[in-house]
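Pasting two entries for a bug report.
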Amino acid sequence: MQLTAPATRRTGVRDADGMAVASFILGLLGLLVLNIFLGPVAIVLAAVALWRGTARRGRAYLGLALGVADLLVLVAFMQADSTVSWSF
């Protein structure tokens, strides 16, 4: 007995759209806090969303760019402070 309907192509696209939006939000949030964790998560979510063929390609690319920016900001602050972490 099957309790759920089988996944359709539309379900996969909606999941990919959600991943694109999540990567954008996490990348944006990562510029402020926890960029060492949120940056790579945003990059992975954006890559998976693009691979699955999201309709929100712009948001996926922004999430990818923001994820990379998170890591670049972390490296810049680490170089300025000469530490592994950074603070204001």
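Entry 2 (this is the one that rendered wrong in the viewer):
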Amino acid sequence: MSDSSTPATGKEAFHQLIAGLTAQIAGKPLDGELDRWLNTHHGAGSASFEQLRQACIGGVAEGWLCEREGGGIRYGRVFKAEDALHRFSVDVVDMQDIAGPHHTHPNGEIDLIMPLDGAATFDGRPAGWCVYGPGTAHRPTVASGRALVLYLLPEGQIRFTQ
């Protein structure tokens, strides 16, 4: 833990960034309105988007993000759902021109799309946020390049179907 005279670094600073964000969205329905709100207030080009992007790039470089690999995808759960994160878990994946495993979102899923190479999209969406409501399912797909994707899952709930 850092004190007030020592700035947080690495994983601790990332936790603080996520906690600040989840405080703003806690209790909101995971729907199109939240998708629009996130892209308006924290979308591509915003200071908060760039802070999260740089924290993710740094975490990958430091080895505490995307520390596992399977099926051509680097991934990892950074934080389990906890009260400090308003009951969201945090996962980050590193994908390039690939479709991941099909899964459902019992409580929904909030994704932050951070292209790294090319004009990468995630499920057809460019840089920014994508919100899936409760009960939705998909085969997460990055096309036209490489991207990091941050997943916020309410209560950490995800069900892989393949």
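Dev reply: Rendering is fixed now. As a check, the viewer should reflect this: The longest strand covers residues 109-122.
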